[in-house]
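Researcher: Let's do a round of design. I'm pasting the structure tokens now; please hold your answer until I've finished.
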């Protein structure tokens, strides 16, 4: 989990300082930003979900994850009550206090420019994470694990008629 913001310690005035200055309420500096009063924590899973959704939104990305992860995801989709597709399949993150790094494994559609798709994924993931969390994304590493051919889904093992 990541902490962003300042520690959750209210500033307390020194004894007698409010009376001398005629200040407002105790413990709250006049004109301080309400956003700096407390701590916000962002779980690693939140950053992974944002990265996964942003990567899937890019045209040319067929799916996420390696062969094993995709196989497990396909089994999960078929099982009732198992929750369907995992948004974080193929996504690993390292989250620090103010920075994060992302590793993605993607499957691209056949015929697209892998370099362009990877660049678009990188831009979309960085923009989404930085906008939604305020964390600085220091790197997005992309591994292209496969190319999806359009007829792959149509191929079924032939059944013998007996």
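Researcher: That's everything. Go ahead.
Model: Designed sequence:
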């Amino acid at each position: 989990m990541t902490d962003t913001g300042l520690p959750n310690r209210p500033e307390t005035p020194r004894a007698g300082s409010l009376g001398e200055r005629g200040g407002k309420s105790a413990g709250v500096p006049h004109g301080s930003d309400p956003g700096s009063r407390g701590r916000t924590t962002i779980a690693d899973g939140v950053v992974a979900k944002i990265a996964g959704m942003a990567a899937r939104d890019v045209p040319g990305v067929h799916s996420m994850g390696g062969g094993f992860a995709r196989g497990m995801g396909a089994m999960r989709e078929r099982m009732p009550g198992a929750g369907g597709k995992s948004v974080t399949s193929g996504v690993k993150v390292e989250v620090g206090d103010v920075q994060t790094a992302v590793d993605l494994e993607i499957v691209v559609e056949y015929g697209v420019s892998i370099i362009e798709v990877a660049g678009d994924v990188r831009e979309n993931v960085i923009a989404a994470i930085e906008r939604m969390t305020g964390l600085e994304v220091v790197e997005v590493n992309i591994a292209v694990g496969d190319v999806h051919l359009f007829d792959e889904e149509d191929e079924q093992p032939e059944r013998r008629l007996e």
